[in-house]
Every structure is written in structure tokens, then in C-alpha cells.
Design brief:
The chain is an alpha/beta fold. It contains 14 helices and 14 strands. It binds adenosine-5'-triphosphate and magnesium ion.
């Protein structure tokens, strides 16, 4: 047993010269030091609350995106500028510039979600992906739209200020388009109700969230959504037809060549097209920055496989390396994997699926490879249809 401590371990004052000395196992703190610590901690909180998000330079945002996202150069620029303007606006609340949310249109697997996520990482703001197809109007079975705010709040470590500056990515937004005669795509009739419900959030409203999930009868916290940035993403399959019809309609068919059957061109898409597609005009009005992403070329897909930061090939090499096995890809096999994705029209999503398919049998047996003296797995160009070549230690 140590002698009873009679001095504050922090300021060394004797217990007789302070009001109270709290003594622990082999440490003590006086009431004055406790007060000082309290002030220090609440100062920190204050600073955190008042801290504004540094307004980014659009070029820096673009350069950051370039590390992780291949191609989509126009989209990167539009997004970088929209993000910069958004944070300029919320850092100057007296300025009444209207919020401009962002709409991302582009085929599956081209980087819509990845781009929004990467921007949130860059800004160090909380981020949530909400699948619009799982959202329902309040009172219906499913996640009502308010749960999205609740999730953002959880992702910001329950910090109200941070939540109110976060980004919500509304994925599959095209799937909540209302039924429209002018399109061939069949849709959920309740989509319009979900759009209406989302409209309130996007416009800016106060949502009550429970600090500890969904327990009832407990204090709630109010989140103001007016500065939350909403990024909506969707493939808008069938949109080319609407654009084509509009252009043909207004120019008696002479300008039909202006649209490309495969791609939606950003300069061609109008708010009216989105309304024709089934988005309600008020909703479209809240998303005034629109970004179009394009299908990825074979070379771009290969870059996604091998060049960008945290590329798929490096990721799998690392996984194999954990078991002491080297993973190699022949140049031609990478091209083949890219071609498969192109054929399936699954974008970069397809690359992941192909790699999983090809590598899964090996990953299943990896822990045994070393014992069998298999130190290297080489993915040859025949990988797609035939088993891959195994190189043993003796070869
Ligand atoms: N342009 C790109 N650059 C680098 N990686 C990409 C790119 N596009 C897609 N990927 C890769 O493919 C995966 C799927 O992309 P993402 O989720 O961004 O697609 P999406 O456009 O949102 O598609 P969907 O419409 O199906 O939701 C990403 O996790 C990423 O690994
Ligand atoms: Mg997505």
C-alpha cells in the first residue's frame, strides 16, 4: 500500500490549499484542475462545432478523384464545382443562394456511387448511401425517408453539426419515377409518393431522430436538413428514347443523328426529359447540377483493374500474399476480363464479378497451397474458360 497522496498530481498543490482533492489508486487531482480540464474539453467541443468546412479548390477535388476514378473527366469537373459551391454557400449562411443538389446519370458500374463516396471522404463529411427503391412514404412498410437522416446522424458519431453538413447519396433514383405513358419502362406506382417525401428532406426540413436508434419514448434530437447535400444517382434506362423523340419531334426527324443510341449526352438531357421519364418537376428542380457518366472503354476497364489506387488486381494480390502465394496476371488475360465486362454491359462492376469467379477456387484452397509447395498462381489468357495454371515450387 502506498501512503495516502496529499498533493494534486497535476498542479502539485497540497490538499490543504485546495477545496477538494480526489484521490485515486496512485494519483490525485484537485478541484481546480478538474475545472480546468472541463474548460479545455468544452473548448474543444466548441471549436469542433464552429469549424467550417474548408472550401475546396475544384482542381484539388478533381485531382483527388483522379486517384480513384478512371475517366469521367467532365463529371469530375461538374461534381468538383458543385461541391465547392455548396460549401461556399453553407459557410456563409447569410447568403441566400439556393441549394443545388446533384443528379448523376449514367450506366451501371461507371462510378456514380464511387464518385459521391470519394468526394465525401475528401471533404471528411459524413456520408450515407440510401437505396431509393427501399424507401417508402411514412406509414408504409419499409424504411421511411426519415431513417436516412437517422443513419447520417449515426455515421457522424452522433454530432448534430456534422450531420447537418453531410452528404446523402440517393441511389437508384430512376426507380422511383412515376409511371409515365411516354416511356417503355414499367415502374412502381408508389414512386411518386416517395419522391414527394424526399422532396421535403431535400428542400430542408427538421427531422427528429432518436439518439440511440429506434427506441421509443426517449428524448429526440432535431436535425435540420437544409444544408445537407443530396446527390441522386440513376441509370435512367430508356432515357435515350425520350431524348431522341424530343429531338425528332421538334425538328421533324432531320436531327435524329444528334443523339447517340448508346449514351445519354449531358448537353442533350433537359429537365423536361427527366419529367417525361417520371421524375416530378419539383424534385428535378432541386437537382440543378447534373452530371453524366459514360460507359467505360476497354482501356479504362484495364486501368481500373491495374492502375488506380487500391485497384482490384493489387487487392487480390494482397489477399493471396497473406497466405504466401504470389498472384500474377498475364497481360492478355486482363484484356479478356475487361472484354467480358464490356460484353455484359456491367461496367466496372463486372470486373469484380469476373475476378471473384476466376479466383474463388484458389482463394478457397489458399491456406493449403504453401503446404503443397504452390507459391504462385498465374492467371493465363485461358483463365476464363479453363482452370488457371498452377506453378509449383519445383518449377
Ligand atoms: N470510373 C471508375 N473508376 C474506377 N473504378 C470504378 C469506376 N466505375 C466503377 N468502378 C468500380 O466499380 C464498382 C461499382 O461502381 P459504382 O458503385 O460507382 O457504380 P454505379 O455507377 O454506382 O453503378 P449502379 O448504377 O449499378 O449503382 C466500384 O466500387 C469501383 O470499384
Ligand atoms: Mg451505384
Amino acid at each position: 500500500m502506498t501512503d495516502k497522496i496529499s498533493h494534486c498530481s497535476f498542479c502539485a498543490k497540497n490538499k490543504d490549499s485546495v477545496e477538494k482533492l480526489i484521490v485515486g489508486h496512485d494519483v490525485a487531482i484537485c478541484n481546480e484542475c478538474v475545472n480546468l480540464c472541463d474548460t479545455l474539453l468544452s473548448d474543444n467541443k466548441l471549436n469542433k462545432k464552429n469549424s467550417e468546412i474548408k472550401i475546396p479548390d475544384p482542381r484539388d477535388v478533381r485531382d483527388y478523384l483522379n486517384q480513384f476514378i478512371v475517366g469521367q473527366n467532365d463529371a469530375k469537373k461538374v461534381l468538383a464545382v458543385a461541391i465547392t459551391n455548396h460549401y461556399k454557400r453553407i459557410n456563409n449562411p447569410k447568403n441566400k443562394i439556393a441549394k443545388s443538389n446533384i443528379l448523376m446519370i449514367g450506366p451501371t458500374g461507371t462510378g456514380k456511387t464511387l464518385m459521391a463516396k470519394t468526394v465525401a471522404e475528401y471533404l471528411d463529411v459524413p456520408f450515407v448511401i440510401a437505396d431509393a427503391t427501399t424507401l417508402t412514404e411514412a406509414g408504409y412498410v419499409g424504411d421511411d425517408v426519415d431513417t436516412v437522416i437517422s443513419r447520417l446522424y449515426q455515421n457522424s458519431d452522433c454530432d448534430v453539426e456534422r450531420t447537418q453538413r453531410g452528404i446523402i447519396f440517393l441511389d437508384e433514383i430512376d426507380k422511383i419515377a412515376r409511371k409515365s405513358e411516354s416511356s417503355t419502362v414499367s415502374r412502381d406506382v408508389s414512386g411518386e409518393g416517395v419522391q414527394q417525401a424526399l422532396l421535403k428532406l431535400v428542400e430542408g426540413t427538421k427531422i427528429k431522430v432518436s439518439p440511440f436508434g429506434s427506441r421509443k419514448n426517449e428524448a429526440t434530437i432535431e436535425i435540420d436538413t437544409s444544408n445537407i447535400l443530396f446527390v441522386a444517382g440513376g441509370a435512367f434506362v430508356g432515357m435515350e428514347e425520350i431524348i431522341k423523340n424530343r429531338i425528332q419531334g421538334t425538328s421533324m426527324g432531320f436531327n435524329a443523328h444528334l443523339t447517340n443510341n448508346e449514351e445519354i449526352n449531358q448537353s442533350n438531357i433537359t429537365s423536361n426529359d427527366l419529367v417525361k421519364y417520371g421524375m416530378i418537376p419539383e424534385f428535378v428542380g432541386r437537382f440543378s447540377s447534373s452530371v453524366c457518366l459514360h460507359s467505360l472503354s476497354k482501356d479504362q476497364l484495364i486501368s481500373i483493374l491495374t492502375k488506380i489506387k487500391y485497384n482490384f488486381v493489387d487487392q487480390y494480390k494482397w489477399l493471396f500474399d497473406q497466405d504466401g502465394v504470389k498472384l500474377e496476371f498475364e497481360e492478355e488475360s486482363l484484356g479478356l476480363i475487361a472484354e467480358l465486362s464490356l460484353k455484359n454491359k456491367t461496367g466496372a462492376r463486372g470486373l469484380h464479378a469476373e475476378l471473384e469467379r476466376i479466383l474463388l477456387p484458389h482463394m478457397f484452397d489458399l491456406p493449403r497451397y504453401r503446404k503443397q509447395s504452390i507459391l504462385k498462381v498465374a492467371i493465363t489468357k485461358n483463365l476464363v474458360n479453363t482452370p488457371v495454371t498452377l506453378v509449383s515450387e519445383n518449377e
